[in-house]
Amino acid sequence: MINIQPQRVVTRNGRTVQATFFHPNGEPVAAVLLVPGLGTGQRYYAAFASWLAAQGLLVATFDYVGTGASGPHELRGLDVNIVDWARLDCDAMLDAISLCAPDKPLYWIGHSLGGQILGFVPRPERITKVLTIAAGSGYWLDHAASLKWRVWWLWYVVAPLATRWFGYFPGKRLRKVGDLPRGVMEQWRRWCLHPDYAVGAEGPSVRADFAALSTPMTSISFTDDELMSARNTASLHGFYVGATPSMVRLSPQALGVKRIGHFGFFRAQFENLWRTHVLPELSPVP
Question: Which CATH number characterizes residue 262's domain?
Fold first, then answer.
């Protein structure tokens, strides 16, 4: 029987991250920080987190500041960007979960954006291993042809006009991504318009930080991912030069399912994939 507990985690600049800790029955064999995708609330990962906890792992999910339960509900005027999420929110979450499972292996499972921002996170040596799920560069010209016109419309028309007008990105109203702070949307737009995504848009020191990361890393991606092409996936993981990522690309047809896509992996119906492609990466788990 697992124990699920909400917890408020305070960042170094005094903001509050709303998290949920999934405690296993007994002492955990390891800890897992589930780092969410952009515009994806932590509740989406609850089934996966619960399952991992049932395997003996302590698991934490959270919402980035300005999203989900980590308000404020009024986004206009909130000064936060994606790098803040990595350097403050993720840093605080790593400290919090480490306190709950001291001296245990600590795994980072990053979905989409959660796999893109590791190079910004302070003290990555705390992490035993990284798994990225459906993560790739967001450079728009590397997207599948069917997506490019929609992305062009978002970056060159919708995003700049809507963000300027509302003071934040009203994604719920527009049925795109979700509501996001202005600084997040503007930074993400800069990244997506640069061929080298974040490491290109943020400068040489960031490229060096990504390249210096030596934490073991495995990428799990999907041939039917509507948001991340094979080129996007390869591009992102090419920035983690020192980690020499192991690349796993799965086809739904080969697995006997109709669809996985960008979000499907975390649905309870894919427990088989969790057992075959996640547990073997978490070495202390029997």
Answer: 3.40.50.1820
